[in-house]
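Hello again, I could really use a second opinion on something today. My current little project is about how a certain protein chain folds up. You're getting the sequence in one-letter code plus the fold written as tokens. Here's the protein in full, and shout if anything looks odd to you:
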Amino acid sequence: MKRRSEATEDLVREISLLRQRVTELESFREGYKRLEQALNQSELRFRTLADKSLVGIYIVGESHFCYVNPKFAEIFGYYPDELIHVKEMQTLVHDDDLRLA
């Protein structure tokens, strides 16, 4: 009888620990959701500011444009979508100007 009682106690402890862990994970999930919302709001503020900027703004990653604002594209005579993923940025600069660099 003692073995059964010990097994029951072990199961009760394990269930209690699992419930505690579920509560912790739910708390982490809520924190993650708040961080994700804050990140989305921050990105929206950046995009709004950059898209309406009077100066050219770009972000380069992995040797290509990840983001260009409308003004930057206008300066080079393109639409923003045309510049995304352009790998050779030198193609935007006239050969004569490249020699000066």
User: Anything to note?
Assistant: The beta strands are 58-61, 64-68. The chain has a mean pLDDT of 91. The helical segments are 2-51, 70-76, 80-83, 95-100. The chain has two domains: 1-52, 54-101.
